[in-house]
Design goal:
It is a single chain. This protein has 171 residues and is an alpha+beta fold. The chain contains five helices and twelve strands. The strands form three sheets. A six-stranded mixed β-sheet has the order 3-6-7-8-9-10, sandwiched between helices. A four-stranded antiparallel β-sheet has the order 2-1-5-4, with helices on one face. The N and C termini lie far apart (33 Å). The relative contact order is 0.14.
Length: 171
């Protein structure tokens, strides 16, 4: 559901509960509030936080990312470099953006979000669908279904074992 067009300044000075994306003047609601979504978001945040020192990253949940001058996206989870500055809004591309699908989410809409991340310079986007137990990962700037056991960022130690992720949903 979209609202009437507003300025970037109005978007940034308004408190949205929950926070919302901003795309070319429109404030866009995000699908949240489902237990599977919440559980995976906190599990991923914990997973990344527990590896923070070794991987030299800072995990963030629901962090505003300015993907272009008039677009702000809020990934469910993202990782930034440990050395990046602490800012209210991320202006540098995160290492990774993770989107967790809710039942109402459509992959076509998630791809639009991923494309915004790619255009910003984010090298890695993962999409997790807890309802279908599927994952998607970026390959050459496009999302493709992932069929392996562990999501990884090449040439780093950063990874997520999908079996552990799905097991959290089965507890």
């Amino acid at each position: 559901m979209a609202t009437t067009a507003i300025s970037v300044q109005e978007y940034l000075s308004t408190v949205w509960r929950p926070d919302r994306d901003y795309v070319d003047g429109e404030v866009l609601e995000r699908n949240l509030g489902e237990q599977e979504h919440s559980l995976l978001q906190i599990w991923l945040g914990y997973w990344f936080l527990s590896h923070r020192k070794n991987w030299r990253v800072v995990p963030l949940t629901e962090q505003r990312v300015q993907v272009s001058p008039t677009n702000f996206r809020i990934p469910d989870v993202c990782l930034r470099e440990e050395s990046d500055p602490l800012d209210r809004i991320l202006h540098r591309p995160p290492i990774l953006c993770v989107e967790i699908m809710s039942r109402e989410d459509r992959l076509s809409n998630i791809r639009k979000r991923a494309d915004d991340y790619f255009r910003m310079g984010v090298g890695h986007v993962w999409v997790v669908n807890p309802h279908k137990r599927r994952a998607y990962a970026s390959v050459n700037g496009k999302l493709e279904e992932f069929t392996g056991d562990t999501l990884r960022i090449a040439n780093t130690d950063i990874h997520v074992p999908l079996a552990d992720l799905w097991a959290e949903l089965d507890r």
